Amino acid sequence: MSQLSHFIGRRTLLGGMASVAVLSVAGCSTYPSFSLEEAVRRLLFLSTDRAFARLLAPGGFWDDQMTRLALPEVIGSRGGVLQRILTGPLFKDRLQRAFNDMAYDAAERAAPAVTDAVRTIGVRNALALLRGSDPMAATSFLHQEMGSSLVEIMVPEFGDALRVSQEPLVGQVLAALTGVDVGNIANSLAYEADNAIFRAIGREEAAIRADPRSTNDPVLMAAFGLK
């Protein structure tokens, strides 16, 4: 996929998310009453929109300690491989960054699935999700409901990226890992990316809860007790 296609795809995705939020706010101005379930959905739509805007920016995974992907355990546990190929911290960082760069396409592929889930999942016990003590409660609920579905979406993206990577270190490590196929590494990276995505969404949720007025969304402001 070309950089231009990446850019267009990202703008289309984020624009679609924003459109949902704008339409919802417009509806709220016409119908002041709202359900708690609707408030949870708006909270998740906005949190997801903001999270993917960060993740799909240049260096979105690598530059953020909260979302940076670690080296797959299958590589880290093979001390001999790392010692022979990754002869210093710069080489290790270079390999780790290559894996984080691969997460861009995987996250771009995963984003629509998150948006669809927010739109369609049944929200149970919305009051507890909104008024409980956990600032990331709605995100945790969403992650639980989605299970490993994002992992399944992202594994092929990581697999393709590993096979065509132009980073020489990636090829050297894959060649040295006897008995470990690309699928195992792709699966490990997909699980890492899945957790990173939901950590990013949860961080945005917590920020919205801390300052709901900044959203300019009357439903969210009312849901969190602002007048």
Tell me the total number of β-strands: 0
Q: Please tell me the overall pLDDT.
A: 84
Tally of domains:
1
- The radius of gyration over CA amounts to 20 Å
Strand content: under 5%
Our count of helices gives 11
- End-to-end C-alpha gap: 47 Å
The largest sheet is:
none
Into which percent range does the helicity of residues fall? Answer: over 70%
Descriptive key words:
single chain; 227 residues; mainly alpha; 11 helices; elongated; disordered N terminus
What does the secondary structure layout of this molecule look like, with pairings?
Elements: H1 3-30, H2 36-55, H3 73-76, H4 79-85, H5 89-120, H6 126-131, H7 137-146, H8 149-164, H9 168-176, H10 182-210, H11 218-223
Helix pairs in contact: 1-2, 1-5, 2-5, 2-10, 5-8, 5-10, 7-10, 8-10
Question: Would you write up a description of this structure?
Answer:
This is DUF4197 domain-containing protein. InterPro entries: DUF4197, TAT_signal. It comes from Novosphingobium aromaticivorans (strain ATCC 700278 / DSM 12444 / CCUG 56034 / CIP 105152 / NBRC 16084 / F199). The protein is built from 11 helices and no strands. By secondary structure, it is an all-alpha fold. The protein has one domain. The longest helix is centred in the middle third of the chain and has 32 residues, at 89-120.
